[in-house]
Specification:
The complex is a heterodimer of chains A (182) and B (438).
Chain A (H helix, E strand, L loop, with lengths): L10 H26 L12 E5 L7 E5 L4 E8 L2 E8 L10 E2 L3 H4 L10 E2 L6 E2 L5 E3 L8 E6 L6 E9 L6 E4 L5 E3 L1
Antiparallel strand pairs in A: 1-10, 2-3, 3-4, 4-9, 4-11, 5-6, 6-7, 7-8, 9-10, 11-12
Chain B lengths: L1 H10 L7 H10 L9 E3 H4 L1 H4 L2 H22 L7 H10 L4 H28 L13 H24 L4 H15 L5 H9 L6 H32 L4 H12 L9 E5 L2 E5 L2 H6 L6 E3 H26 L21 H12 L2 E3 L2 E3 L1 H23 L16 H24 L21
Antiparallel strand pairs in B: 1-4, 2-3, 5-6
Helix pairs in contact in B: 5-7, 5-14, 6-7, 7-8, 7-14, 8-11, 8-16, 9-10, 9-16, 15-16, 15-17
The chains are: A alpha+beta (182), B mainly alpha (438).
């Protein structure tokens, strides 16, 4: 009964320590479970891949596609149609930027980097290719992968797949089925 | 008359017939227990506090009552929230006044709580005589927590209508959280309950606004009031006892028991020292303090109601996830943060630090930290306690004033000088027409 050389090893203190551990585990487990339950395991959110319609339905120039929250740019020359998608979500704090390209930069009469997109929330401005002109935006607007859906031939913007600039171009020859990536 | 007397007994069993009896009510009456038996006349003087802390509490009570009624009328669902706001505004009897009172009292609570903090600073009420073991600095820290809670309640509150202001405040708030290094993405996900703002987000902020934050504010606020009593009342009282001691009358605190949070502490209290002041400096808490309190409550209520009758609570267009308003502006108490967020994106070498982190997290945290440690480092003499603008503190007061002016200046810039696309326009300079989207 004499364990005086090792303190805290009596039955009483053992039970005290045991109950502290059990109590601590119970509280810790409860807090963990409560917090963990707030992190969703399943997200009922729209798909990150968005169909934006067949080529002939997409207007020329720059168009905002609402479901993708992206600007799709379509330009045709020499029988080829070039398509790419740029995110419309400002890289600063997530507002939707507006297409504010001036007429002179549309026609390509100026060489200076002119404003293509502007953000109403904190004044960031981007070129038509997404580079930051001014304002608090820390990064250029990302480009999204564009592909052709194999089932119905609609174009698909994948907003979860950020691609390197100018590699996102999809060039379609005038013939419908002749599709290749550059 | 007899009937009246008898029915009154049911609700109010105690009717004092002498000044002494009314003073005793502080001990006998549960509601009066929060008051000391005696307070100094100085504490009751208007210029000592302007009753700013009291007004903050009264506004909180108005907010709680109007808020509970609004909870019966509001549906926290993405599809129905905005419609229920329209119903409150145009269909429910007295609904618009009710909502306006809730909004105006919320604006008022932020403003008055801030003024309360300013008052504490300029009168050095955040510290007491160190030799007597005063711990007023702790109450200053608790006050800062309460101020942050008030701002959090305001933020979560104006999200609920699910209008344009609400939606874009959520987008920006969530991305400010995301801009924090390392934990940013997880913070955003827990905050909005997913990767996109939707029903999960609304219900989260609804529960925060109606349950979690108010309960927290009441608990922390109760501790704030308890500590005020524990520290011996207002700083002005400390000053009186100090002057009295300096005048040769050593105030001997009698030994007493006092409550700590979870027990009873033997020793002496500062409040006992103040009650040892000469009678000419003291007043009975009941009725001197209680009647003034009733007047402050009444006036606060009248002003809130009066403003609400003439100023309607704003309600913008329903939330449109594709088009932020241009310019999109936060309520006035967050405009200085919005201005900072828009200006503080830093480039360090090849790294670019998002202004959302610098202006939205870093600078406010530093400001709070400076405010938090300041009383512990303040070496101004005890003479400065409880006096407005004491000479020994001119430098500290100037520094603080510059901070306040900077915040107000940023608010003015953001409120009046920022036009479409957050461009600068001078006062009165016309804004260009921007195309109306959708």
């Amino acid at each position: 009964m004499n364990n005086s050389d090792r303190q805290g090893s009596t039955r009483r203190s053992f039970l005290a320590r045991l109950s502290i551990w059990i109590g601590g585990l119970a509280v810790g487990g409860g807090v963990f479970a409560a917090l963990r339950s707030l992190i969703p395991n399943v997200l009922y959110e729209p798909s990150k891949k968005v169909k934006i319609g067949t080529l002939d339905l997409i207007p020329d120039g720059v168009t905002l596609f609402k479901d993708a929250k992206a600007f799709v740019s379509k330009h045709g020359s020499e029988g080829k149609t070039r398509i790419h998608a740029i995110s419309a979500v400002c890289t600063h704090l997530g507002c939707i930027v507006q297409h504010t390209e001036s007429e002179e930069s549309k026609s390509g009469t100026t060489d200076k980097p002119t404003v293509g997109f502007s953000c109403a929330c904190h004044g960031s401005q981007f070129t038509i290719d997404g580079d930051v002109v001014k304002g608090p935006a820390p990064e250029p607007l990302p480009w999204f992968a564009v592909s052709v859906s194999p089932d119905d031939g609609q174009l698909v913007v994948d907003t979860s797949s950020v691609v390197e600039r100018h590699k996102a171009l999809l060039v379609l020859k005038s013939g419908h089925c002749n599709v290749r990536k550059v | 008359m007899e009937v009246f007397q008898r029915s009154r007994r049911v609700f109010w069993s105690y009717s004092p017939e002498s000044a002494r009896e009314s003073s005793d009510s502080v001990v006998r009456n549960f509601l009066f227990h929060v008051f000391p038996a005696y307070v100094t006349k100085q504490s009751l003087s208007l210029a000592t506090t302007f009753w700013l802390g009291t007004v903050t509490w009264v506004l909180f009570v108005i907010l709680t009552i109007t808020g509970v009624i609004l909870m019966f009328l509001y549906v926290p669902s993405v599809e129905r929230a905005y419609q229920s706001m329209k119903d409150i505004e145009f269909v429910v009897s007295y609904g618009s006044i009710l909502r306006s009172m809730h909004r105006m009292a919320a604006h008022g609570m932020v403003a008055v709580a801030f003024l309360h903090m300013v008052r504490i600073w300029y009168t050095k009420a955040y510290s007491g005589p160190r030799r007597q073991g005063s711990r007023r600095e702790i109450n200053w820290l608790i006050g800062l927590v309460l101020f942050v809670l008030t701002l959090a309640l305001s933020y979560t509150g104006y999200l609920l209508p699910w209008d344009q202001l609400a939606y874009w405040a959520l987008v920006i708030g969530a991305n400010v959280a995301k801009s924090a290094p390392l934990v940013g993405d997880q913070m955003r996900e827990i905050l909005i309950g997913g990767t996109e703002i939707g029903q999960n987000t609304l219900i989260r902020f609804y529960i925060l606004h109606c349950v979690a934050l108010p309960i927290l504010l009441v608990v922390v606020g109760a501790y704030h009031m308890w500590r005020l009593r524990r520290d011996g009342g207002l700083a002005a009282t400390d000053r009186l006892t100090m002057l009295q001691s300096a005048g040769g009358d050593e105030l001997k605190p009698s030994s007493t028991k006092t409550y700590t949070l979870l027990g009873i502490k033997e020793g002496t209290t500062l409040s006992v020292r103040s009650s040892a002041l000469p009678d000419s400096l003291l007043a009975r808490a009941n009725p001197e303090l209680t009647t003034r309190l009733l007047i402050v409550m009444l006036l606060t209520h009248v002003v809130t109601l009066g403003v609400s009758l003439y100023v309607a609570a704003p309600l913008e267009a329903p939330a449109n996830p594709l088009a932020p308003p241009n310019p999109a502006k936060a309520p006035w108490y967050f405009l200085w943060l919005q201005e900072l967020i828009a200006d503080t994106t830093l480039t360090v070498g090849t790294y670019v630090i998002n202004g959302g982190f610098v202006g939205g997290i870093l600078i406010p945290t530093i400001a709070l930290a400076v405010l938090a440690v300041w009383p512990f480092l303040d070496r101004s003499p005890d003479d400065a306690m409880g006096v407005w603008f004491h000479r020994s503190r001119w430098l500290q007061n100037v520094v603080f004033t510059i901070g306040v002016i900077a915040v107000i200046g940023l608010i003015i810039v953001a409120a009046y000088l920022r036009g479409p696309f957050w461009e600068l326009y001078w006062f009165g300079e016309p804004w260009p027409q921007v195309p109306k989207l959708y």
